[in-house]
Amino acid sequence: MSGHSPEEIKLERKRYLTVFIVLIIGTILTVGASYIELPTFALTVALALFIASIKGFFVAGYFMHLMDEKKMIYGIMGATVFFVIGLMVLTIWASGDPIPNTIYP
Amino acid sequence: MEIPYVSEPRKDTGLYNAKVGIWLFLASEVMLFGGFFSAYILLRVGAVEGTWPTELLNVPIGTFNTLVLIISSVTVVMAWSALKLKNFQQYRIYQGITILCAFTFLGVKTFEYRDKFTHYDVVMTNGTRVDGHLVEKTDDHIVLSHPVSYPAEKGIAYRPTAIALMEEGEGAEHGGSEADAHVEGTEGEEAHAEEHGDGHGHDMTIAMSDIKKMTNWGPWANTYFAIYFTMTFLHGLHVLGGALLIAYYWGPGAKMWKTDPERYTNRVEVSGLFWHFVDLVWIFLFPILYLL
Amino acid sequence: MEATQTHVQEHTSHDEHHHDPGFWRQYIFSSDHKVIGIQYGVTSLVFLLLGFFLIATMRWSIAYPEKPIPVVGPLLEAMLGDVAAGGIMSLDLYNSFGAMHGTIMVFLAIVPLAFAAFGNYVVPLQIGAVDMAFPRINMASYQFYFVGGVVMFTSFFIPGGAAQAGWTSYSPLASAIPTDGQTFWLLGMVFLITSSLLGAVNFIATIIQLRAPGMTWMRLPWFVWVQFVTGFLLLLAFPPLESAAIMQLMDKVAGTSFFLPTGLAIGGQLADVSGGGSPLLYQHLFWFLGHPEVYVLILPAMGIVAEVIACNTRKPIWGYKSLVYASLAIGFISFIVWAHHMYLTGMGTKISTFFQTTTMIISIPSVIILTCLFISLWGGSIRFNTPMLFALAFLPMFGIGGLTGLPLGFSFSDIHLHDTYYVIAHFHYVVAPGTIFGLLAGIYFWYPKMTGRFMSEFWGRVHFWASFVFMNLIFQPMFAQGMSGMLRRMADGGAGYSIANNPDAIGGLSDKIIGLNVNISHAAWALGIAQIPFILNFFLSMKYGKKVESDNPWQATTLEWQTPTPPPHGNFTKDVTVVRGPYDYSLPGAKEDFVPQNQSA
Question: Which of B66, C51, C211, C430 has an alpha carbon within 20 to 30 A of C588's alpha carbon?
Answer without folding.
Answer: C211
